[in-house]
């Protein structure tokens, strides 16, 4: 069974008959529905069509019952899709049928069958759920979150993850580090080596780039997420600003691209869809630097 990030293949499932509900219970089908309400007891309410469904607070997420996860994990799900199984049909005080749902069961199965067997170097599909200055939180399956630290989002340095990814974006990511209760993922190893990125540009071209940092000795301009060059100092620029740059030289042994800023534009960078050089399978070693480079930059999984 495939355990995808919540919302990646979302269809708001509705049931027309009680028999359909019973069939879903018997088969253990994983269903997705949009949360309409988080009540004062922090139970999640979902419309199933023929009847309403309720995910009790303790079944809303792994760690809620153990008090290792705060209730904000439930409150924040309103108007968002969640994965669940229907476990029973009961009647309320007015004699109306409602379905008892469990998201926790789906997450337990996802942990057992998909996430726990993952090894460092495995590439998976994830969904960006939240951004903080230190990194991007991602749903790696059934609403289970992990982190891509900011320095693992690309080789080109950024000041905030929103410069590289956006909330709701579906990305490929690689498992970088696995600990007992924590997994750390990375993106940069999938975005190409220095040579792969440099091969997209030629000396003498004028191309668009993004100002990433301004130093006293020059301006770093990003040409691609894993490739930046240095231009001579230029006044009245801001990080994130788009510029056109003339490519003066490309030096593989020093992993340097020398640029000349031609023109600055008023628009600022927003994250674009990513281009991958690797997007599936497993990698055990990734070397960013060219063979003849003075400095070795690599990742061993």
Provide a brief overview of the structure.
This protein is mainly beta.
Structure, explained:
It is a single chain. The chain has 301 residues and is mainly beta. It folds into three domains: 18-112, OB fold (Dihydrolipoamide Acetyltransferase, E2P); 118-192 and 274-300, OB fold (Dihydrolipoamide Acetyltransferase, E2P); 194-268, Nucleic acid-binding proteins (OB fold (Dihydrolipoamide Acetyltransferase, E2P)). It is 11% helix and 41% strand. It is built from four helices and 17 strands. The strands form four sheets. It has a five-stranded mixed beta barrel with strand order 1-2-3-5-4. It has a five-stranded antiparallel sheet with strand order 8-7-6-9-10. It is elongated. The two termini are 27 Å apart.
